[in-house]
Structures are given as structure tokens and as C-alpha cells.
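Notes from hallway chat w/ T.B., transcribed later so I don't forget. T.B. wanted the structure written out for a chain they're using in a teaching module, and asked if we could keep both sequence and C-alpha cells in one place. Agreed to drop them here.
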Amino acid sequence: MKKIRCAIYTRKSSEEGLDQDFNSLDSQREACEAYIASQKHEGWALVPKHYDDGGLSGGNLERPALKELMTDIDEGRIDQIVVYKIDRLTRSLSDFAKLVDRLDQQDASFVSVTQSFNTATSMGRLTLNVLLSFAQFEREVTAERIRDKIAASKKKGMWMGGTVPLGYEPNGRTLKINQSEAMTIRKLFELYATYQTLSAVVIKTTELGMRSKPKCTVNGHQGKELTRSQIHHILTNPLYAGYIRHGPKVYDGLHPAIITPDEFDKVQSVLKAQASKGRGYTNKLCAPSLLIGKLVDEYGERLTPSHTNKKEQRYRYYVSRRLASKCTSKNDDLKNSWRLPADRFEKQICRAITRHLLASYKSDLLTNPTAEELSKIKDLLHHVTVQTGLKSTATLLNCVELVQLRSEKIKITLKPEQLSNLIDVPIKRINSTLLDFEVPFNTKKRGVETKFVIGTEGLDNHDPVLIKNLAKANAYYDAIKQGQTFDQIADKHSTSKRRVQHLVDLAFISPTIASMVIDGEQPSGLTSEFLRYHPLSSNWDEQMKLLLCYKLPSKLEYLNQTVSAEIGRRDFLL
């Protein structure tokens, strides 16, 4: 009889009760041991090693004991995982699929003590998926309840934990003032009110020996020198004026204030005024990065601004943090990182926003719009569109709350307050469903830089060569219709017969695409060189479908789809 080595895995989401002599982990293990003992006749044998994860969520696989267990399975030390319930192993369907794949690779399996089903049958697998779906649903509902509880508690002014801010000490569900640290907070607000620049405040705090909240170290409780970012966070934190912040909303707190609300508001006014100027704004080489804190990648990580100088010219970029810091050695992570030319990207986002608003202002943007309102909105949007330079870009990007890079799409979220100011209508009249919209994009690598084309909005994308060739193609086609041969056309225009045959195909491009080329709004890959080796279909609808998908076909795809149409067209020309 084959010996089946069984390992028991236990897990508990919270740390509550783990210090008891007999806790939930012990209860799970006891039930699993009894079940393994009942299967002794099948050759089941218990592995004495414990795999316990106490106080860890089942929403992910980042658990020490589970990692150790899977390592032992990969090394062939375990044949069977025994759990009390399936959700002890994981509460995520995607994570469960990964675990099952690893188990299958090692000819290992798992069993649930309290849930009996056979995964060798289709009904058993269906039952398993249903159970895991409910486990994942339960985890998500629990998370929603916790978020709602935190939001409701903060609305009442409670402090809901986390890092204890400088100047305070925890006091149940609120805070009490630490008088010695509170002096530091008051001094910071006083210094900023006096000097009105963060750089000067940083210098003064260093001179005065002001430090952050003490932390326990090997040398005792010590604080560190305050950094620029820490000072800015303190100066913009409404907590010190007696408020509690939850997301974009601020509520009256139960804790005492260190400074008065008037002092806090005065500092915010100065900070806002300084921010509107931008660092180095008066220098022509410098320009503010208008999407700071608003641009995130597909992993949810914010892109950070960067720049380089070449021949007295400043080139700005938005760069992935993992690329900027090179904090990872994984080539795939660096390969999937972003390095976007900031100026071009910002202008394309502005054009996408303008197109979205112009396309929706007549019907969906407002509830029950009047003719006067529609005319006013159109004039305002047109005014912003025709503006040039930083002013127009800043006006539109000020309306942006978030820009998310996704797979072949960009999701743009607009701020209702700023949009209301832009089009001069009450915020309650704006259709909130139009504040989020997506636009497709194409990318083209050029070294480490990524050329970004959002939709068909190729800024400054005029191709004089393609426009000239379109004109030649129509002239050649007119000559053919008048009865001239390819040789006669080639002699007249001092070119080769083969060149005429290649270019005349461009006369069959749809008028819509020809208009896009003239306006410079064609996809960046649609060039004369591309069309020479990848002629478009003679069907105008098929041509537009390709462009609406923002993809250009490969030569093989084109030959498979349109070879019959091309043969018919060439027979006609000849």
C-alpha cells in the first residue's frame, strides 16, 4: 500500500484569541488529525510539522506557513493537504487555480474535512467552484462592511487607528495632545507663515534641531530630522485643526486641535498660491508636471515626474517608480514599466477630454439642458480648445482626478467641481456617469521611450510624404480613366512603371481616411512605407473597421482577408 504523507494547514483571519491555550488553530488541527486517523487504512500518515497562519487573510497567498507548505510540496515531501474548510486554504478563485496547478504538477491533492466532494467529477468541480465563489463573496462583503464602518466612524469624528501623528498620542477612539510634540507642530505652522516657502522651513527646522516622532531604536527612543515631504504633510493635514479626513471629505473630529482653523486656512491659502506658481515656473527651461499624483499604471502605482536636459532644452517624462528607482531585478517588471514624454502625453489627454466633452455636451452631459446652456458650453469648450500653450493644458488637466493606464486603454476620471467651473453650470446638473470614460491607445517603442498615441489623436502627425502620394495616386488614376497606360503615365511624370502601379492603389483609400491624413489624425503607423507592403482592402467599410480598432494588419493577415478583392481591383486597372 502506498504511503500518503498528509500535512495539516490551519488559518485564522484575526489575531483575536490566538494567545489562548486552545484556540481556533488547535481546533482545526484536532479535527484534521481525527480525519487522517480515520483514513489510516488508505495509507494516510500525518506529517508532524505544523503549518499554521494566525491572523492572516485568505484573500492572497502571501502567508509564511502556506509558502513553506507549497515549497515542501514542490520538493516532494507532501502528498496531501488536509484543511478544515476550503476557505482556510484560500478565499480567492484565481489563487485557488494557481494552487491546484502546483499540486497537479507534483501529483499532490487536498481534502476538506467538513466538505465532502469528489473533484474527479464535473459535479464535484462545480460544487468546489460554488463554495469558493461564496468564500470570495464573503471576504469581499466583509471588506465592504469594514470600509463602511470606518467611513461612518470618521464621519462621527473618531480616529480609526494607523500611524500616530506627530503631536498626538492615542486615547481609545480619539487622540490626546502630546504637549512637547505639539510645540513642534505650532512652530512649523509659525515658520511657514513667516517664510512662506518649504525650502526655508526645512533649513530652519534643521537649525532648530526639530525632529519627527521618536521611535524605539537600539540606541533608545529617537526621532529623525524632518524632511520636506513630512513638513508638507503636516502643514496640509486638517487633523491639527481639529478635523478628521476620510478621502476627499473632512469632518469635525473628537480630538482637541493643536492650531486654530483660521491658522490652518491661512497656511493652505499660501500653499495653494505657491503651488499655482510651480517650482521653476519663471525659467523657460522648466514647466510644471500637471499630472503629478494623478497618473497610475496598470498595477495602481503612481508614475513619478522626471526630466533630462540636452542642449539647454528640458525634456520632461512620467516614469514608473520601479523604473526610476530600479528597485527590482525582475526584467519583466522593468520591461512593463512606463517612460512617457510628458508634454506630448499631457496634450493628448487634453485632446481626449475635449473630444469626450464635445461629443456628449448636447445630449448626455447635462440633465434637461436648454439651448442657451448648450450654446454657452460649446463656446467655452471651443475657447479652451483654441488656446495654446500651458494655460490651455493646465485648464483641462485641472479637471482631471485620475488617469489610469490599462491594457490598450486609458481610463480618465474627471472632477465634478472643476468640470462645473469649466463649463459654468451647477455641479448637480452634471451627469456623473460621464465623469469616467475610456479611450484606446497605441504605443510604439523607441529605445527606452514610449511613443504614445491616444485613439487617432496623433498630435502634429501630418505626413507630407503620404499626403503628396495621395495626390499623385489620384492624378494617376484620373489618367488611367482617360485611357493612358502605366508606361505613358510613368514617362509623363518622370518615374518608373512599378512606382506608378504601387502608388495608384492609394486612390482607393476612403475619403474619410484621406481626410484624416490631411488633418494629421491618422494612426501613427499609417505611412506610405506601410501601405507599400500592406495595401488596404478595396472595401471602404473594411478600411474604417481597421482604423476604428486602432490596429494595422500584418501582411499575412491582409493577404488572408483581401487577396480576392485585390486581384479583382488589379484586373480592372490592367
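Follow-up for T.B.: The domain at 4-141 is CATH 3.40.50.1390 (Rossmann fold). Might be a good example for the class.
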